[in-house]
Amino acid sequence: DYLAARFQKAYAFLNRDDLGSLALGRVDIDGDAVFANVQEYDTVAASEKQLEAHRGYYDVQFVVSGQELLQYAQLDGLPECQPFDEENDFGLYETPEQCTNVVLRAGDLAVLAPEDAHKPGCTLGCEPCHVRKIVVKVRA
User: Fold this and answer.
1) pTM over 0.85
2) CA 25 to CA 46: how far, in whole Å?
3) Which of 10, 60, 90, 130 has minimal Cβ neighbours within 10 Å of its Cβ?
């Protein structure tokens, strides 16, 4: 099945041993069907961020170094904070009172479907942390 094949490409990419030295930015794996975004950032308080969601892609979020809190909630029924950006497949949504918290540490992975609104990059505890993460985008 085409989706399983795309996920296999994503996981094969994440099995590389040079993830810590890849240049920041986009890395093509299979054109627009599967590609990676290499990111580095400092975590911020969850209250400073909105949930995000994508309609056309699954996110496979892999933490190379650092740690963060990722929150997620079902997208259905969440109020939009701004109109959905079709070109960039990106929308921001209000955070409901009930969110699921997931701790991601180096070597951890989270797979988020288009129906999952999510808020990555949140500070775990009270001290910000520098995170290197690779987000593989898998077209739905």
Assistant:
1) yes
2) 24
3) 130
Distance set, CA 84 to CA 24, 50, 80, 111 (Å) = 25, 13, 8, 21
Lay out the sheet containing 130-139: strands in order across: 25-30, 34-42, 130-139, 57-65, 109-112
Distance CA 132, CA 66 (A): 7
Residue recorded with tokens 């942390």: 129
Structure-token match 């099945």, residue found: 1
Query: Are residues 134 and 36 in contact, defined by beta-carbon separation less than 8 angstroms?
Result: yes
Average pLDDT rounded to a whole number, residues 18-41: 98
What's the chain's length in residues?
140
For residue range 44-79, list pLDDT tens digits in order.
999 999 999 999 999 999 999 999 999 999 999 999
How far apart CA 10 and CA 36 sit, in angstroms, is 8
DSSP 8-state code for residue 22: S
Give the bridge partners for 53, in sequence order. 91
Give me the residue label for tokens 């949140």. 122
Q: What amino acid occupies position 99?
A: C
